[in-house]
Amino acid sequence: MQNMRIGELAARAHVSTRALRYYEEQGILHSERTPSGQRVYGEAAVERVRLIQHLYSAGLASRTIALILPCVDTGHAPPEMLSSLHTERDRISTVIADLEQARRRLDQVIELTEHPDPEHCAIVRDAAGRTTAIAGVAA
Amino acid sequence: MQNMRIGELAARAHVSTRALRYYEEQGILHSERTPSGQRVYGEAAVERVRLIQHLYSAGLASRTIALILPCVDTGHAPPEMLSSLHTERDRISTVIADLEQARRRLDQVIELTEHPDPEHCAIVRDAAGRTTAIAGVAA
DNA sequence: CCTCACGTTGACGTCAAGGGCAAGTCGGCG
DNA sequence: CGCCGACTTGCCCTTGACGTCAACGTGAGG
């Protein structure tokens, strides 16, 4: 139970076995092998795969993930990598901001559809283009 | 100056002309045409393209965008679309949460690399897997 | 009139993240 | 022993969001 093969890991991490082999091919997920060549994973691999998925959904490419994963493992990075870490961090922050703006747009549509309010309506629609001063309304 | 052709719009919205034609092909960006067939856009198109980019970076497919954009325009949605709006909204929220978690991971690595602190270190690494109670540390 | 940058459509290329199939191997069970 | 499901590698296929190239039209300046 402590060690599992690829099928079980796939089931527990909710990904396909194909994806797991792909991750290994990209160098971001490692496995032990039985003498006959079958992949064997420990418990930690489940959490590992979840982290990989988070980074993927953060828009990081597998090459980038391959770069930073060792740093996450060891808990520190070679100093020359710091700038690229900062770059990725900033990119993620930008994406988050964009997402939050998009979500506010959706919220406005949902709000207006669920509670059609002619008076309120003009105000919100007029403000839709701008970023600031909406948070309070949308929240 | 009030009307622009595709090149100017592309420059002002920081996308390629190819992307703009692609958006039109997907039915998410419309244009007037001159008698000779050239695309003509008004000022609003710049903001429009930015919104499209936000929705793309939110992971929405162009078909989905094509569905919800009219709602954003009119300010309301046909009721039968509400559930899919909520679905997309929730998906965006999930992506944001994943992104924030990924950013916290990066922050930890950056923090540890810039200020190697053996005592602090074990605490942070131990907390890396969990979502809650980290925000205060990361912020 | 000529030029030349900008525009048009259409078709094909690319790249990432897998999906799917083929052909063979492994391993546990009756 | 034979069986069968899970596993292996290798290979090509798919999807989405464009890039790129070809072949041609447009329109303002000199």
UniProtKB/TrEMBL annotation, chains A, B:
Keywords (A to Z) from UniProt: DNA-binding
Boundaries of each HTH merR-type domain copy?
3-71
> InterPro entries attached here?
DNA-bd_dom_put_sf (IPR009061), MerR-type_HTH_dom (IPR000551), MerR_fam (IPR047057)
**What GO molecular function annotations does the UniProt record carry, in alphabetical order?**
DNA binding; DNA-binding transcription factor activity
Entries under PROSITE patterns matching the protein: HTH_MERR_2 (PS50937)
Whether DNA-binding counts among this entry's keywords is: yes
PANTHER family reported for this sequence:
MERR FAMILY REGULATORY PROTEIN (PTHR30204:SF97), REDOX-CYCLING DRUG-SENSING TRANSCRIPTIONAL ACTIVATOR SOXR (PTHR30204)
Q: What is the official name of this protein in its record?
A: MerR family transcriptional regulator
* Organism encoding this protein: Herbiconiux oxytropis
